[in-house]
Write a structure and sequence with these properties.
Blueprint (H helix, E strand, L loop, with lengths): L2 H17 L11 H24 L4 H30 L6 E2 L2 E2 H12 L3 H7 L17 H25 L3 H24 L6 H5 L1 H18 L10 H21 L11 H16 L5 H7 L2 H8 L1 H14 L7 H28 L6 H21 L68 E7 L1 H15 L4 E5 L12 H12 L3 E5 L4 H6 L1 H17 L4 E5 L12 H24 L4 E4 L6 E2 L2 E2 L2 E3 L5 E3 L10 H19 L36
Parallel strand pairs: 3-4, 3-5, 5-6, 6-7
Antiparallel strand pairs: 1-2, 8-9, 10-11
Length: 681
């Protein structure tokens, strides 16, 4: 069935294009779904053929073939990533060269054990996160689902063959259909109302139906290996139509849309099944011959290696200073070179029995152990040189926020380098005088504040609640959550219920998931924001505080063009927020406090801490705040709001409270390491 190699080529091409952020492949993630259907079809076909030929299924032989096919190339990728960590990972807990060494251990061992999908869910790593720093091994989630299927599915087929005897194929087909529908329902249930669809996307239970669609097709054809439909023209046309619809989905279904989790992925899988049926016949027709052409067939043969290598290459290859087209060509070229090398020097020799007899049995555990050792060694903490000491930490003053003096030495990496030796400071302007509360809050009747926003606001909230509540006249309720935005969430229905429950007087928030919408349609987004404010006011809220969204750092997954686009979009959102405050001066305030996380007006990863050392202000993803960053932002917010709200001064040591140990600062683990910037050069 050479046409199936062509399908593999199309599927891996769609995934690579999607991960390159090419606009015409916004739905390229669906290439993985075609891989799943193909895997279910081929594996079940092999098992059914063995049952028909030998009267039994040898699980040992099946799993041995799978191990020889899949493990050698995976070992190579994991060892290569470990070697990169040793050579480029200068910071023991930071993202150096695009790689977080501290997280490599868990990610690598999970990939090695084919448990990566559940590991990434436990570590809260979203496949669709906009600003996160995804692991260079995150793509192994799909390999984990396939391997889990390869372990469970043959056991089920063997059990059904024993119980059902000669009718095993029909019984297995019925069981396949029931399990597939259960999986479809699982995807719909776990995605319903979820702000992030990763549980439905990563979960084996929610994705099994795609493999089962292929398995069901194989069982339908298992007793007719040389099948040919009575009217092949209809099937050929169906295959061409299915391919056209799949390509259209690969080009347009960005997101993915919520409806994809309520039947859309099933439809894509069924289209894949029609396409496979069309090209897997002895006479596959014109479409099958095109897909079997030598260039596509060759890409399909190395597609496993292409999938394995492309994501680490995209994440780790240092091309951020190159023009985007040149960088993309370089990444694709390196990916093909590594995949071809792996295929011809590792994968094919192992599959052809390069290690006979006892050596083959010993090679697998030895290679797995060596790979695990490489991951553990590469992710071990390393000694780090300490940068020049910053000036002493000074807690933020009660009325204005003054940035600490610039160090007299070169500022640390990820901040702007400056040759000046004089102290400079930036003071944030006071809020609009018109934004005042209709009453003076007291300890007996505290001001009720509701916090809304995305993960940046959610990670800032522990410090914000600490500083405001330390005045003893404010009570803070947090509803901020990852991936929240006016364009992303059901705020129209959620907010009235929240207001009725907590009766907030003021809402404070900031969010970055709408920055693209604010940039592409400023007028439309301004109307949306004004509608949100009107909803709050109509339900009894006195006012809303919009906090300036902070700068995004030199994200290891962004090239210079992408980072420039993010900064443009960020400024667009801030401009819309400021305009809303100008439109409703007595109801909305806009607080330009992003400078609290900057030095010389530039993004800063490390800032002076209370112990006389540099301390992390941002997590290793260069986006979210660590305790120091959250404290500085919150101090600036409190300083600006205190006069308008008649708030007493916060407790002098509020920034030393237990809130600094909030688990949000350690999601995923190691996000805020106690490290120092690289030494000045």
């Amino acid at each position: 069935m050479p046409g199936l190699d062509g399908l593999r080529a199309l599927a891996v091409g769609a995934v690579i294009a999607y991960h390159l952020n090419l606009g015409w492949a916004s739905g390229g993630y669906l290439g993985v779904d075609l891989f799943f259907v193909l895997s279910g079809f081929l594996i079940t076909g092999l098992l059914a053929a063995e049952r028909r030929r030998d009267g039994r299924i040898s699980l040992r032989s099946f799993w041995g073939r799978r191990a020889r096919r899949l493990l050698p190339a995976l070992f190579g990728v994991l060892v290569a990533v470990s070697l990169f960590a040793l050579l480029a990972g200068a910071s023991p807990g930071g993202a150096s060269g695009g790689l977080n060494r501290q997280l490599l251990r868990g990610d690598g061992l999970a990939a090695l054990a084919y448990f990566a999908n559940w590991h990434f869910l436990a570590a809260h790593q979203s496949y669709f996160a906009q600003f996160s720093a995804p692991s260079p091994l995150q793509h192994t989630w799909s390999l984990a689902i396939e391997e889990q299927f390869y372990i469970v599915w043959p056991l089920l087929l063997v059990g059904l063959a024993v119980l059902a005897g000669r009718s095993w194929r029909k019984v297995a087909l019925g069981a396949t259909a029931l399990l597939a529908w259960w999986s479809v329902a699982a995807m719909a249930i776990v995605s319903h109302g979820a702000a992030d669809p990763s549980r439905a996307y990563f979960g084996t239970d929610a994705r099994a139906f795609e493999l089962l669609v292929g398995a069901g097709l194989a069982l339908l054809l298992s007793d007719r290996p040389d099948w040919e439909p009575r009217r092949p023209g209809w099937l050929q046309a169906g295959g061409g139509g299915a391919l056209a619809l799949l390509i259209a989905g690969w080009a347009t279904l960005a997101g993915p849309p919520a409806w994809m989790f309520r039947g859309g992925f099933l439809a894509a899988s069924l289209l894949g099944g029609v396409l496979i049926a069309s090209v897997s016949r002895p006479q596959p027709g014109p479409l099958g011959r095109v897909l079997a052409s030598p260039p596509l067939a060759w890409v399909g043969r190395i597609s496993y290696g292409l999938y394995l290598w492309h994501w680490p290459v995209l994440r780790l290859l240092p091309t951020s200073r190159w023009p985007t087209p040149v960088a993309d060509l370089a990444r694709v070229g390196v990916t093909f070179a590594l995949a071809a090398t792996s295929y011809y020097l590792v994968e094919v020799p192992v599959r052809r029995g390069a290690l006979p007899g006892w050596r083959r049995l010993a090679a697998l555990p030895a290679a797995a152990g060596a790979t695990a050792a490489a991951l553990l060694f590469a992710s071990a903490p390393a000694a780090t040189a300490v940068a020049a000491a910053p000036p002493p930490f000074v807690p933020p003053p009660p009325v204005t926020t003054t940035l600490p003096p610039t160090p007299t030495t070169t500022t640390p990496s990820s901040t702007t380098t400056s040759s000046t030796t004089t102290s400079t400071s930036t003071t944030v302007a006071a809020p609009l005088a018109a934004f005042r509360l209709p009453r003076v809050p007291t300890a007996a009747d505290p001001l009720r504040v509701l916090v809304v926003g995305d993960s940046v606001m959610n990670d800032t909230e522990p410090a914000l609640a600490a500083v405001l509540e330390s005045t003893n006249v404010v009570r803070v309720t947090n509803t901020a959550a990852p991936w929240w935005g006016l364009t992303q969430s059901k705020w129209r229905t959620d907010w009235p219920a929240l207001i009725a429950q907590d009766r907030p007087e003021v809402v404070i928030g900031t969010w970055g998931w709408d920055i693209g919408a604010a940039a592409s349609d400023p007028a439309g987004y301004a109307a949306l924001l004004d509608s949100a404010v009107a909803t709050l006011v109509d339900h009894g809220v006195d006012g809303m505080v919009l906090v300036q969204y902070p700068k995004i750092g030199p994200h290891p997954g962004f090239d210079s063009a992408t980072l420039a686009t993010v900064e443009r979009d960020r400024q667009a959102w801030n401009s819309v927020a400021a305009a809303e405050a100008a439109r409703r001066p007595g109801t909305v305030a806009y607080l330009p406090v992003a400078a609290a996380l900057e030095l010389h007006g530039q993004y800063a990863t490390w800032l002076p801490g209370p112990d006389g050392r540099w301390t992390r202000a941002r997590m290793i993803d260069d986006v979210h705040p660590c305790p120091t960053g959250a404290a500085r932002t919150s101090a600036a917010v409190e300083a600006l709001l205190a006069p308008a709200w008649s708030l007493p001064a916060p407790a002098p040591t509020w920034w030393q409270g237990s809130w600094v140990h909030d688990p949000r600062f350690d999601e995923p683990p190691g996000s805020c390491p106690d490290d120092q910037p690289p030494p000045a050069t």
